[in-house]
Design goal:
It is built from two helices and 21 strands. By secondary structure, it is mainly beta. Among the domains are: 51 residues, no CATH class; 97 residues, no CATH class. It starts with a helix and ends in a 7-residue tail after the last helix.
């Protein structure tokens, strides 16, 4: 055998081994704004290395003068015969595979990355001028929110002693000293199935559905009820199921944006009476 033939005989197995040994690589990226809406990738990021720093629960990087939270993950598949769901394997040899995923979340600026610090549970960040909750920027307040003083208040709510936050929203006029989650809540359902969650709190003068103030609601007499569409009480004028709030004067649909339900006095009395009947007959969902 010639020298060339010997070289080929040695090189081909080595090339095959190298091909089978070195993984096939793929890269996927996603760029989003802080609200989760997809944005254009400013440049091909798969081949770039970013200097990042850990702040609380996040890896933050300044990219083209914009601060992003960066998440990277890697999935691997060993060489061999890949198997499908159920255990059947394809009779085709497959090289090892590596999939890299990069997820970039743009923080609403301006942001001073060098001054960014974590607070409370590490999901709240601040650079001294702006406050971010789960990467969403909190609207500026006067006087400003004091992130170092933030503490848990109720489930989902935090306060610095002056302002009350639900996620990145500031509750309009909420009083942290009297905010509580003891609104009577009950249910009337015959259809079964899981019950959607609802977050209703009140202070000494207002009622809030998550972060939204329910305009006109009386905090001292407000009651919450969930009706199945097939279990609506007669004489109330209600036409659809879901969550409702009722006080001594009015009623609100809480499942579709906290809008006022227009009831006459007779319909309001019938609704209030049915809710009070349910409270007396069934355990309250607020734990009281």
């Amino acid at each position: 055998m010639s020298k060339f033939g010997v070289c080929v005989a040695i090189a081909v197995p080595l090339l095959v081994l190298a091909y089978c040994h070195f993984p096939e690589r793929s890269c996927f990226t996603r760029w989003e704004d802080s609200a989760g809406e997809e944005i254009a990738e400013p440049f091909s990021s798969c081949s770039h290395k970013f200097e990042s720093r850990t702040v609380g629960r996040y890896e933050l990087a300044a990219i083209a003068r914009v601060v992003y939270a960066v998440e990277e993950a890697e999935n691997r598949q060993a060489a061999g015969f890949p198997c499908m769901t159920g255990g059947a394997c394809l009779p085709i040899w497959s090289r090892p595979k590596v999939w890299r995923h990069k997820h970039f979340t743009k923080l609403d600026g301006p942001v001073d990355l060098d001054r960014m610090r974590p607070f409370l549970d590490g999901q709240i960040l601040s650079d001294g001028a702006a406050v971010f909750v789960r990467l969403r920027r909190v609207a500026s307040q006067t006087p400003p929110i004091e992130p170092a003083r933030l503490r848990p208040l109720l489930s989902g709510y935090v306060t610095d002693g002056r302002w009350v936050l639900y996620e990145h929203y500031v509750l309009d006029g909420a009083d942290p000293a009297t905010l509580r989650s003891d609104i009577p809540t009950t249910i009337s359902r015959t259809g079964g199935g899981p019950l959607p969650e609802i977050t209703i709190v009140r202070d000494r003068h207002a009622v809030f559905h998550e972060h939204e103030r329910i305009d006109g609601a009386d905090a001292s007499t407000f009651i919450v009820v969930n009706y199945d569409v097939d279990d609506l009480p007669p004489g109330t004028g209600l036409t659809g199921g879901g969550w409702f709030g009722v006080d001594k004067r009015g009623a609100w649909s809480l499942s579709l944006g906290n809008y006022v339900v227009n009831l006459d006095k007779r319909q309001h009395r019938a609704l209030r009476a049915d809710v009070e009947r349910l409270l007396a007959a069934r355990p309250r969902l607020d734990g009281s």
